[in-house]
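Supplementary Note 3. Input sequence used for the single-chain structure prediction.
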Amino acid sequence: MKYPNNLNKNFVKTFSYSNRGMDLEAELNETNEYYLEKDQALIFKKPTPIGLADVSYNEKGRIINKAYFKEPSTLDYNGLYKGKYIEFEAKVTQNKTSFPIQNIHPHQIEHLKKVLKHHGIVFLIIKINDLVYLLKGTDFVDFLNNSTRKSIPYDYLQTKGYLIKYGYNPVLDYLKIVDEVYKEEFYEKSTI
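The predicted structure, written as discrete structure tokens, is reproduced below.
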């Protein structure tokens, strides 16, 4: 780029993958806020449980100097929707051809299986190739049980997953997909 006085400036863009999921998280938080405001669902981001090891104080308040994770976290979001417990993990991958299973920790997989056992609604939201998919917990576990692969192929997500389209309000209307995919879960069984 040419600047006044023939000054040249070169821009070097550096990449960091440490916060690549923050955009998806922000979109989901905004969507959940919309659901809350419209009284459609109560779904919240779960805080990571931390313990404080060293704290100091200044005029602005308490400063955390050292902290540690108390215990492994379960899945990212949980809450209630139409009287059913709902929980999901949100992940982003830069890989164009597959989603690495190592992105879901073993304790999270065990937790997901427990939610399934107790008939809760549980799924993954995966952003890949700038598209967002909802993958049912049952389909994720089925893949784990029937494959030796270390990653979920993109075509599996296209086949078994459900595309969540971007919108204005809400940004990612994943409950629209939940309604389609889990409709039998919401039918009230008549006892008469």
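Residues 21-181 form a domain with the Trna Endonuclease; Chain: A, domain 1 fold (CATH 3.40.1350.10). The longest helix spans residues 22-37.
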